[in-house]
Design a protein that fits this description.
GO terms for molecular function: DNA binding; DNA-binding transcription factor activity. Helices cover about 40% and strands about 20% of the residues. It has about 300 residues and is α/β, with parallel strands linked by helices. The protein is globular, with a radius of gyration of 25 Å.
């Protein structure tokens, strides 16, 4: 079987138009027609029914079943191409969200440097949600990811390294600033400044607010955590941030939360289950495991 035929067929199911599929792959329309006929002969089933009078096509039930399997085959083929292409490369394709890059990666950067590994790193710094997709697609080899619950994803091996608590963050002049610990419901009438949706903080905000019985009034969202802390310091609003992100120089008050919500900023080391690291990548991963010794949440 020609895997290109599967790619043509999958695109036909998506686009429902032979001409559009031919344009996508820069081939002639008869090429797509012949590919579908080859697949129908291979599986001894009608995959596509065409209504020339009304210029429409219908994907049959066997066609839909093949489409589902074809997507898996094509995805695994793309992954294989990506991994084989980089198999003999000495680079380490590594991903981490900016907060991990700022707060925790420096704890192992010195050892990576002393072992001569930093020069091999090709780093992608975006939110954990985007990194998860890049890892599953084989575009990066290893990642440090954040999640509100311990990470469990099909096809991935995730090792929990640390679990850091979320804290409410308010201006030093806020009515609750001196309390030390609060219930999240006490923030029901506040304006919230939130991280954008590609990070784990918005999920934690939704979970704490749901437990407290209110919908947070988010007046501003940004991926820039220093900006969030600066806005909180001016009294523009309050926020929910991982506790380790707050330092005395931020000029904000960090408050523990007494609510029995399970959310934590869980930092996990993640690779694909079938990933075969080379010697350099294995050494790099072993150093990252050292982050397990840098402070679990007291909760």
């Amino acid at each position: 079987m020609n895997t290109r035929d599967l790619a043509y067929f999958a695109a036909l199911v998506d686009l429902k138009n032979y001409t559009a599929v031919a344009a996508r792959f820069s081939v002639s329309q008869p090429t797509i027609t012949v590919a579908v006929k080859r697949l129908e002969a291979e599986f001894n089933a009608t995959l596509v029914q065409r209504d020339h009078a009304h210029n429409t096509l219908t994907i049959t039930r066997p066609g839909l079943l093949l489409y589902q399997r074809a997507q898996l085959v094509l995805k695994n083929l793309d992954l294989a191409h990506s991994e084989v292409r980089r198999a003999d490369q000495s680079t380490i394709s590594f991903g981490m969200p900016p907060i991990i890059g700022t707060l925790w990666f420096p704890l192992v950067a010195g050892e990576l440097f002393s072992r001569g590994l930093l020069k091999y790193m090709k780093t992608l710094e975006v939110g954990s949600g985007d990194l998860l997709k890049e890892l599953q697609a084989g575009k990066i080899d290893v990642a440090l990811l954040g999640s509100v619950r311990p990470l469990q994803e099909p096809g991935l091996d995730a090792t929990l390294l640390a679990a850091h608590e979320f804290r409410a963050v308010v201006s030093p002049k806020h009515r609750l600033a001196q309390r030390g610990e609060i219930e999240f419901s006490e923030l029901a009438n506040e304006n919230f400044i939130s991280m954008t949706g590609k990070f784990v903080h918005p999920q934690a905000l939704r979970d704490y607010s749901h437990f407290a019985g209110f919908r947070p009034r988010v007046v501003y969202s940004t991926p820039n955590m220093p900006l969030i802390k600066a806005l909180v310091a001016t009294g523009f609003g309050v926020s929910l941030l991982v506790g380790d992100a707050i330092t005395p120089s931020d000029q904000v008050s960090s408050l523990a939360l007494s609510d029995p919500v399970a959310d934590r900023f869980n930092m996990s080391l993640v690779v694909r289950k079938k990933f075969l690291p080379n010697e350099i990548q294995r050494e790099f991963i072993s150093v990252l495991f050292g982050l397990r010794h840098h402070g679990q949440s007291a909760h």
